[in-house]
Every structure is written in C-alpha cells, then in structure tokens.
Amino acid sequence: MIVWKDEYSIGVEHIDNQHRHLVEIANKAYDVLENQFYTDKYDKIAEILDELKGYTVLHFRDEEELMTNLKYKKFLSHKVEHDDFINKVKSIDLEKVDLNQEKYLLDIVNFIVDWLVSHIIEKDKLITQDNL
User: Fold this and answer.
1) What positions does the entry give for Fe cation 1 binding (predicted)?
2) Does 6-129 carry CATH code 1.20.1290.10?
3) Residue 19: is it exposed, middle or buried by C-beta count within 10 angstroms (0-12/13-18/19+)?
C-alpha cells in the first residue's frame, strides 16, 4: 500500500491530483491482492490494468503538455520513460496472470508503486523545480 506524501507534490494542482489518482489505482491493486474473499481475482486484475492503461495515457498527455508549455529541456527523455511505462503495462500477458494471479498481482503492485514514487520524486519534480 502506498500513502500520498506531500513530498510527491510537484506544485501543479491538476498533475498532483492525477498522481494521487495513480496512487489510488495502485492501492486498488493492493486491496485486491490482500482480499482473501476473492477466490478468482482475474476480473479485478483486468479492470485495474485497463484503468491504469487508460489513465496513464491521459496523465502522460497532460504532463507532456505541461513540459511543452514550460519548454522543459528534458522532455524527450521524460517522454521515453512514459512510453516505456505504457508499453510495459500493455505487455502484461493476462493469460499468464490468470495462471498465477497472486504472483502477478504482487508484481504489478510493486511495479506501479516503485515506478510511480521514483518517477515522481526523481523526474517529475524536475519539471517544475526551475520552471515555476
């Protein structure tokens, strides 16, 4: 489980709100992982992955628009990281997920949390650090 911290804020309200929503998606995945009442978690996992795919496309578009407007010098390398994230999520094989739901769900939760926290702190904060 991930808890939003003020240190994740980049100082742009709509981007920070989107980051909070991504944290909520990660927490949904964690809740499914921990919920012992779901004997088959496949449908929940597929829903979370669909939401993650759709929302990251929207979020990355908005964040890339912000970078363009600010004439952010590291835009291209930042965009590559966004594209890599989307490709990684799209490449998740749901057939493999279905065979070992707990393992893949844990992998998904860890991937989202690790990437999100490190990306926000190490990359996204740089967008506004010198530009606002």
Assistant:
1) 19, 59, 63, 124
2) no
3) buried
